[in-house]
Each structure stands twice: as C-alpha cells, then as structure tokens.
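PT: before anyone asks, these are the final sequences, not the draft ones from last week. 575 residues across everything. Please model them as a single complex and drop the result in this thread when it's through.
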Amino acid sequence: MHVKVNGQTIEIFAGARVRDVLRKYSRAEWTLVRKNEKKISDAHGHEVGLDGELNGGEELVVQASAPAESQS
Amino acid sequence: MKRALFAGPVRRRLFLALLGVFVLSSCVSLPRPPAEARVVPALAEAHIVIFHSNDVHGKIDNFAKVAAIIDAERKSGADVFFFSAGDNFSGDPVVDRYDPPGAPMLVLLDRLGLNVLCPGNHEFDYGLEILRKFAARFRTVAANIKPRPGAFPELKPWVVLNARNGIKIVVFGLIQIEAGNGLPSTHPDKVKQLRFSEPLAKALELKKLRSSGHVLIGLTHIGHEQDLLLAREMPELDLIIGGHSHTRVDPAENVNGVLVAQAGSDNLFLGRIDLLLKNGRLVEKKGRLIDLSQMRDEDGAIKAMIAKFHQNPALARVIAKAPLEISGKNALGSLMTDAIRQAHGLDVAFQNNGGIRLNRLPQTITLKDVYTLEPFSNQIVKIVMTPAEIRGLIKTSFERQREIDLQVSGLSYLIRTDSAKQIKEIRLSKPDGSPLAEERTYKVGLPSYIVSSYRFAHRDAGRSLYATTADDIILYLQSGADLGIYRDVRRAFWEIAAESPRN
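LR: through. Structure below.
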C-alpha cells in the first residue's frame, strides 16, 4: 500500500503502522520523533500514535514539536 | 458542576442556539423527533456525559485514574456512560498472556461500568471464544459483522441505551476491513466464522435509526479518515466515537454537523463528550480529551487490582525445557527464525542480531524469558522474494556494521569479502547444501523492523501476518520442538577471500 509522508509517497507492506512508514521514510526523522523533538500528525493536524494502524492512501506529516515553555 | 459546563458565554451561546432552533424549526422541515420524545416532559433538560477510550492495547495502568474520573462524575449527579471503540487487547503480555487471555481487561472494564463496546480488529486476536465472553458481559455492537448462523448471537448491530428523562441513545458499531481481503487486520484464521461488509456502505443502511432515539451515535473502529467520510455521508449522526488510527482528536471536531471524536491510544487519554438536550432535542454537544498524565486522583481498589494483575503468574509458567541452555546470537536467532518459519509455513525467515535481546535462554524457559528475548512486538511480514532480492537484503544487512547481522532459517548463507570487508560474493544454500533455484521465488518472513529500516529492493511490498515474533516463539516452544539442535547451530558465515597478489 502507499502512504504519503510530508508529501512523499512511501510504498509499505499491507498492515503497516505509523512507526513502520516513518522508519522507511527517514531514519533521521524517526529518531527525532522518538526523542519527542518532532511529532507526527495526520493530514488534518491531529497527532497520531506510533502504533496507529494505516490504510492505503492516508497522509502523515512530521513536524517540529511545540517548544517547551520557558522556566525562567 | 453540571451547570458550570454550560455557564457564562456558553449559556449565552446555548440561548442563541435554542433561539436558532426555534426559528429554524418554524421555517424548515427538521427531522421529526422520535416517538419516544413525546414522553419527555416539557422543558425537560438532560445533560449526558459519555467517557470513551480506544486502542488501549492492554495498557491497564491508567485505569485507576479513569475510574476516579468516571466515579467523580457519577457522584456529581451527571448521567454518565462509558464507551470503548475497540482494540482493548494485544500490546502487553500482562493482559495478553493472562490465563485466560484478556481477563484483566474484562474485570477492569466491568468495574469501570463499560456500557458499550465496538470490537476492533485486535479483539479477535485471542480467538472468538474470548470475544464471546466479552460480548456476554458488555453490549457489543458491530453492524458490518455477519456471523454464520448461531456463531455469535451476543453480537448486535446496534443497541438502545436508556438515559434519564426518557432519553434514548442509539449506538451502532462499525469495524474496519482491509481493502485487499475484506477482513479486519488480524490473522484470517481468527475470523473464519464471521463475514464482514464494507463499513461505510453498511452505515448508510442505518440512517433509519435516526428515528429510533433522541441521540444517534456511531461507535467505530475504522480510523479517523473513515470517520470523517462517515460524517460527511451521514449527517443523521450526532456523534462518532472512533478508534483504530490512534488519533488524538482534541477537541472533538464538528464535521457536517456531526461531532467526531477519538482518544489517541494506550490509555494515555480519556475522551469526554458532553451532550445537552432540551425537550428531547440535542441542542449542544462538545468533546475533549483528558490527559491522564496530568490527573492525580486514583481509585485505590482499582489500583490494587492492577498491581495484582502485574504479578501475572502465567508469565512465570514454564512453557518448555531444553536439554541445555540456548546461548549466543547464532543459536537464539536460529530458534527465533525456525519459530517464525514454522508458524506461517514460510520457506525462509530472518531475524536481525539487534532484535535478539537476551544472551541465553535457560534450560527451563518461561513466558517472561520469551518477552525478554523479543520485547519489541515486531509484527512478522511475509514478502515473496527472488534469490537475487534475498542477496540484496543480506548485502544491506552486512554493510550496516560490516559484520554478520541476519540469522536465518530455511537456508544458510556465506558472505565472501576482501580484506577491506567489501562483499565479493553471497552464496545461498538450502539446508541440504544445494543452491537455491534462481528462477523461483520464496516466501520470506521478516520482522517489521527489518522491512521498514533496511534498504533493499523487493518487488512484492509484503503483507503483515498479524503475529509477533514472541507469539511465534511461544507457539514453537509449546509445540515440543527439538531444542537440542541449537547446541552448535550456525547458518550465517563470513569469510575473507584470499586476494590475488598484485603486480
């Protein structure tokens, strides 16, 4: 099946989850999401979990997480 | 407390909304109120709170907080319901490997007073008998499942819940199916007794339910994208509470007049919907997520139950005895790949060394040992591959660290490199030593980590087999496999070829 990540079409096995598609899209981005430095959302801006199950044709967006509030 | 939800600006909006409804009702033909609405006393007001969760996947720890939240709301006098949009199982051995499987989830959901459950694709993972126990305990709805006669009488397409003041809430269920095989995302053998139809088409047949109650709800496990399509196609709905895609919809969004909600996954959030009805008409609806990490109150009795469940005695149960310890990557990887290959009838299976998280399995092997050996819950993916594609995979694996990385079952391989570790040749052999047939393809099983992380060419994109490596190892060990063969086993070889003298 095909899933788009940041506009790039990724071919992935049927039954793949968000984490599978993200790892295939970019190891660097995967690492940043794991560190909570970036978050992954659907095409409507809703954050999705890494074990979220996907259907072909869906779209994901990786973007920077909101910066933490300053403590000072 | 109940009034506070609609106080201040909200109250003014409510007044304007009511005024709008009055004006609209005198101008256009609105859907007729259901017959039951006539029994509602004039000017009667109803505030209904629906808590919802989805895709809990065996993560029970936050249920003590969920219980405290729901209980507090009930004590405040609100009319409270609790819905589950599916996938309560599969994801934590404490729940998945309980005896019987899933028992902690059944007990906890019962204590929480679950009103309605829509099964998700993972509700079938333990087999139909376990789901039947859940359906016997909780109202379970899925309109697009058609059991074979007598197979699953507890399953209903929809239910009607009676709220206070004569308010009737109609809830129908929908479960996802895959485009390819028309089945939910689980092993096909688990759902042999059931037939499934396309969820959105089935939902559109249920528009008539609008007249059966005051509130119409789709409790779905079809993913947020499909929920949005459903909302656009079926404005008769008041509310969709969804699951499957693990989407945090906060606040719930209004699509075509339908409120669409989903509460993420793993019991990190609890969804809350507030419905306000006047004279049998829904006049305000809103939804938000409660971040359970920010909540402090816990139900002490539930917390104690969860602690006891974590001591799951089944994890300490011995499932196999080996004639000797099984140690080292070669032996453990061979056992893991043999298990994958046997479980799914595959020609070949691979396992990366990084995914083998134990140095040795003791002679007396418990379930806990298996989950320590393979803690990642990697799904097994079947890919049909040519020998050339298999060589490509092995080449990629070797080049990651310039050393043997993949353990294998169903074949052995030899990598020949020069002294700079540049690959010169990869030779594949069947277990009897003969070469693989270059013209044919092989069914290869790979952990999902390899498929998504390793860069290798394969024409077949593959398909999940909806089983984890740990599942397969447990089946293999319980099958009475001969564990003596792993003493000195080795199937992956690397040699540095002698280099020709340079002139």
